[in-house]
Specification:
The protein is of the alpha+beta class. Helices cover 46% and strands 26% of the residues.
Length: 99
């Protein structure tokens, strides 16, 4: 409910629109996994609401792009494993890259 209240305060008259996007990937020469997320909301026209709206958009875009990239990465690793292929070290999660 607290999150909903925050959005309600930001939305206000809804005459200004703010957006934030992020793209996250793990690739080796174009092969790999990536995710892109863009979030837009309408907010009050005052500077504080616009700045807070941008913060909220950025936080949401980053949160979901991270989640979706991890899911895409796991799917890519599953496909490679089903084909008997070994991913290049650049495609492995940081803790697994060098053994």
């Amino acid at each position: 409910m607290e999150v909903q209240d925050e959005y309600s305060r930001l939305a206000g008259d809804g005459k200004a629109r703010v957006s934030a996007s992020t793209d996250m990937s793990i690739k080796d020469f174009g092969t790999g996994a990536s995710a892109m997320c863009s979030v837009s909301i309408t907010v009050n026209q005052d500077q504080g609401s616009i700045e807070r709206g941008l913060q909220v958009c950025w936080w949401l875009a980053k949160k979901y792009a991270t989640q979706f990239r991890q899911e895409a990465e796991q799917e890519m690793l599953n496909i490679l494993a089903s084909r008997g292929a070994t991913p290049s070290p650049a495609l492995m999660p940081p803790g697994q890259r060098y053994g």
